[in-house]
Amino acid sequence: MSNLSLNLVASARNYPERIALKCDGLSLSFPQFDAAAARVATMLEREGVEPGDRVGVMLPNTPAFAVAFYGILRRGAIAVPMNPLLKAREIEFYLANTGAKALFATPAFAAEAAIATENTGAVHWSVDDASLAALIADLPEQATPVERADTDTAVVLHTSGTTGRPKGAELTHGGLGRNQEVCARTLIEVGPDDVVMGCLPLFHVFGMTCGLNTSVAVGATLTLLPRFDPRKAIEIIERDGVTVFLGVPTMYSALLGTGVDAAATESLRVCVSGGASLPVQVLTDFEKAFGAIILEGYGLSETSPVASFNHPDRERKAGSIGTPIEGVEMRVVDLAGKEVAQGEPGEIQIRGHNVMKGYWNLPEATAAAIGAEGWFASGDVGKVDEDGYFYIVDRKKDLIIRGGFNVYPREIEETLYEHPGVAEAAVIGLPHDSLGEEIGAAVVEKGGATIDIDELRDYVKARVAAYKYPRHIWIVDSLPKGPTGKILRRDITVPTIESK
């Protein structure tokens, strides 16, 4: 039997006094968390949700998400996590795509959820922490989790849809369980005495596996922040004695921008960065300011998510995504699928227990993504060094081709981050009549800084090849970001700028 919710059952038995979930004034012990999930499972059963049926979870980072999520798993159903900010049309797509029978949705978007569920026929519960507790208060607890196999789907997690309509990655009980177990034991080295910061969205695979599932499995406390705010995050770190911080690069940049004394975060033992490439300058500045190391890793929704990591017991290389985790293989290949020479760029491919079962009801897309030998094509361009450490060069689709020369945005962004006035930067390709594409950069200034665009252009020009530096640079108040805080290059607004 491999139901992922068995981890919660075990922790409720092994850590009866331990706080499992915190969110400001609300806290749940492991037995309280387990009992609430068991009542949700009963509620689902009474509404006709059978093992294998899909149930949407469209809630922010509060205990209600965790309770609903583990209740779904306990029932043997399949969770379909969704961004709570989705609009009716988007919700309807997720529900219809998976044939979901029910949806837990935040009251803040109850009207949108109501429209979507009316159109799909799904049952809709509009809940927050208090209303969910009241809804299940008088229900009996489902005695034991429904039996599931390692290969049974636990979660359908939709990809971002940057290359078309979102696809639902099927993540299994066995794959998710093994991924969190390896992370807890060999990477984050987290245990029941730890307090994990839960500011990554739980509907995203990074927050779900490394935050929620890992904390549940080892008996650690997960302290939740519904919406990321750097000053609030530091307040929680100090208040709750957070030892493990999980974040994306923009969160580390935001924490740096607070100028808070490192004494407030002295409880931090380790920080983990993923979801996007961490600029080396941000890593260096953060570790100097806060005195806590950052271990950078790499993964995707389709890989549960962790594929590689800068392991704590090995050399840590700044700018690298580390080496494959236990039970996982990685390689770099050319367009023909042949491994490239060491140090040469190519597409990263991944094989192991972490790779998804496939895309929900999309056999052709699954076959295109996972080859006959089990290698998953990531769509990321990378390279590997002589020590087996991998480096992300960029996304294949973000590659800029200027006059026949390949330009990888990340390389130019790293250079921009080295400038003392730059807080955030994003490099994109701009249409050009003769060159095909020209290099553009949107930049956010650090607090108190005023950037001279010509000076910044010259700064980059002096540090990269002539065909790579951005001819067009513009200052913005902020950069568009996805739900995890990842910068969305495709959503950047380009002003009319004179050619340089």
From TrEMBL:
Highest taxon in the source lineage: Bacteria
Keyword field contains Cytoplasm: no
Pfam families xref list: AMP-binding, AMP-binding_C
GO biological process: fatty acid metabolic process
Entry keyword Cell cycle: no
Family indicated by similarity: Belongs to the ATP-dependent AMP-binding enzyme family.
Protein name, as recorded: Long-chain fatty acid--CoA ligase
Lineage of producing organism: Bacteria, Bacillati, Actinomycetota, Actinomycetes, Mycobacteriales
